[in-house]
Design a protein that fits this description.
This protein is an alpha+beta fold. The protein is built from four helices and 16 strands. The chain has two domains: about 120 residues; about 140 residues. Helix content is about 20%, strand content about 50%. It has a 16-stranded antiparallel beta sheet that branches. It is globular.
């Protein structure tokens, strides 16, 4: 029994020692697949340069992207992603998987200085990706809650921690998104206060067979409430929502959109003599030729 335990421990140690380089190469392959797919899915961003420095337990990747849309003159802005890649199978607090990737972004110096002046020394955005053994994975973006004491024209912005999680399959054939911002508050120099209460975005999508850009998808965006208080009184809107649904049936495509809100209250509404309990706006497009849409 004791001998069996020793052999098992040695085999486990060998696995943990020998597996990371192979999983690192697998993570490199998946990163290249995602970058190639990015060029197809997002035509206004070009991958200018990519580099992968291999290590035994960790690797480093550098990717330079260029916007296809000029930002004044003929110059096209560039930014660089630096990825620190921890090879699996043990990924610390991220659990198990092929790799864990921590990303930081290099922006132009003037833009970086502006972000630091606004958000302070702590990173404005943190990004971590876990790559699964089958090629899919999940990316989490987080901006820690903070108070921005000096905003534009004397305004102040305070927000609680915002978080976005995207789960994706191999080759990005399907993905799910879950984004949440519990609360944000804007105080104007004149004393006016605007509160955004509980923003959420949820959705899922699956790429349609034979199409590069179109997905069978369903997304819902909600804001539980907006309250703006100022010298003229308090204006509130409840349950702002926007939903979109896309579906292919045979060779035809259907998309529908719904937006609206719950009750709307405030001096302007009351002064008009109206009582707004609910607002709805719906539109749908049916029997669109799917292949023609994909080509466009």
């Amino acid at each position: 029994m004791k001998k069996t335990l020793i052999i098992g421990a040695l085999l486990l140690a060998a696995l943990l020692l020998l597996a990371p380089p192979g999983l690192g190469r697998f993570a490199e392959q998946q990163a290249n697949v995602l970058l190639d797919d990015l060029s197809t899915q997002v035509p206004y961003v070009t991958v200018v340069e990519r580099n992968w420095e291999r290590g035994w337990f960790t690797s480093r990747q550098t990717v330079t992207l260029e916007s296809a849309l000029p930002a004044g003159g003929e110059a096209r802005p560039r930014f660089t992603l630096h990825n620190d890649v921890l090879h699996g199978p043990l990924l610390g607090l991220a659990g198990i998987g092929a790799a864990r990737v921590k990303t930081r972004i290099d922006l132009p110096a003037d833009m970086q200085a502006g972000i630091r002046d606004t958000f302070g020394p702590e990173p404005a955005l943190e990004m971590t990706t876990r790559v699964g053994f089958l090629g899919g994975g999940s990316t989490v973006l987080r901006s820690r809650g903070r108070a921005l004491e000096s905003f534009a024209d004397g305004e102040q912005l305070t927000y609680e921690t915002a978080r976005v999680e995207v789960d994706f399959s191999r080759d990005l054939d399907s993905y799910e998104i879950d984004a949440r911002l519990p609360r944000a508050e804007i105080r104007g120099a004149d004393g006016a206060v605007t509160v955004l209460d509980r923003f959420t975005l949820e959705g899922e999508a699956e790429r349609l067979a034979g199409h590069q850009h179109w997905y069978d998808s369903d997304f819902e965006m909600r804001l539980r409430g907006v309250e703006a208080a100022g010298p003229q009184g308090t204006f509130t809107v409840q349950d702002l929502h926007y939903e979109i649904d896309m579906e292919k049936r045979g060779e035809l495509f259907r998309m529908s959109m719904e937006m609206g809100s719950g009750a709307v209250q405030g001096p302007q509404v009351e002064g008009s003599g109206l009582e707004i309990r609910r607002v709805d706006y719906n539109v749908s497009l049916r029997r669109l030729h799917a292949q023609t849409l994909d080509s466009l």
